[in-house]
Write a structure and sequence with these properties.
Keywords: Lyase
Strand content: 5-15%
Number of strands: 9
Largest sheet: 6 strands, parallel
Protein name: Amidohydrolase family protein
Shape: globular
Strand order of the largest sheet: 4-5-6-7-8-9
Order of helices and strands: HEHHHEHEEHEHHEHEHEHHEHH
Organism: Gordonia rubripertincta
Helix content: 40-55%
Radius of gyration: 18 Å
């Protein structure tokens, strides 16, 4: 969506029809990206060249300026969303947190988001974020290339666990594995901090089953649907049919996430990918709104 007018009325109507037909007041999207422009530009440049890494092109469907992207979510009927930020090096997280706090203050429907990196200062700026009213954290193990069990993060995880603030954590090995991705580091982390309210991004793709098992074991673990079940993801990392019952059983801990704007397909097609699982209207209502409303106390 390189131009604002590229968003058609038909697409808006199709998105709104999904939640209206379920009798919901709208959508809650726990996985959307708003970042400082220089950072977002670099992220988009990465995706523009990512084809060779994942064997296919990755066009940004909703490439537009910040204000327009907020407008698009409002037009879709998204009642709450996030500004998923993440550092790839030391001494970056505090700056991102400052930007995200300002963005949330001027964007009322955005859940105040913060992030962190394994560094000596991390417990201090995480505590500061908690005191300032942060609603959600983002951790990106793949991009940050860090071990979530790094002792430098012990104070971070402890503070987050005590405050019961959800952390959307990209820890699965998709779309490309990293040194510390996969279920084992998260298993070790949860053994040490069993009350951590983690939200496993992308359903833990491609290690879906293992991360669903962690959610079964730890009652504060959720998973978000970001990119999962879509035609694009199914070609790379198909969701195993054998895990469908676990998905059904954990229906109260599955959250809608889109990866907007950085998706190579339409928002509508991502919603359709979830509904065509055929797990029932109650399950879908939980995923698209009710579960996140409960988790974030949204009325």
């Amino acid at each position: 969506m390189s131009e604002p007018e590229a968003l058609s009325a038909a697409e808006v109507d199709a998105v709104r029809a999904v939640w209206q037909q379920l009798g919901l007041p709208g959508l809650i999207d726990v996985h959307t990206h708003f970042m400082p422009k220089p950072v977002m530009d670099k992220v988009w440049a990465y995706f523009d060249s990512v084809g060779p890494l994942v064997g296919r092109e990755w066009p940004i469907t909703y490439r537009a300026d910040e204000d327009r992207r907020v407008e698009v979510l409002h037009e879709f009927g998204v009642r709450a969303f996030t500004s998923m930020i993440y550092p790839h090096k030391p001494e970056m997280a505090a700056w991102l947190n400052s930007w995200a706090a300002d963005f949330a203050a001027r964007t009322p429907d955005c859940l105040h988001t913060a992030t962190f990196y394994p560094e000596v200062s991390a417990p201090h700026y995480v505590e500061a974020a908690i005191e300032s009213g942060v609603r959600i954290f983002k951790s990106h193990i793949q991009v940050g290339n860090y071990d979530p069990t790094d002792p430098l993060l012990d104070g971070v995880w402890g503070a987050i666990s005590d405050a019961a603030i959800p952390v959307v954590i990209h820890c699965g090995s998709g779309p490309a594995p990293g040194q510390f991705t996969g279920p084992q580091p998260i298993t070790e982390l949860l053994r040490k901090f069993p009350r951590l309210p983690l939200v496993i991004a992308h359903m833990g793709m491609p290690e879906y089953d293992e991360f669903l098992d962690l959610a079964t074991t730890y009652d504060r673990v959720h998973l978000d649907t970001t990119m999962a079940f879509t035609d694009f993801a199914e070609e790379m990392a198909p969701f195993p049919i054998s895990s469908t019952q676990k998905l059904r059983d954990l229906g109260d801990r599955i959250l809608w996430g889109s990866d907007f704007p950085n998706i190579p397909y339409t928002y509508t097609s991502a919603l359709d990918a979830v509904t065509r699982l055929g797990l029932g209207d109650d399950w879908a209502r939980g995923v698209f709104y009710d579960n996140a409303a409960r988790l974030f106390q949204i009325t």
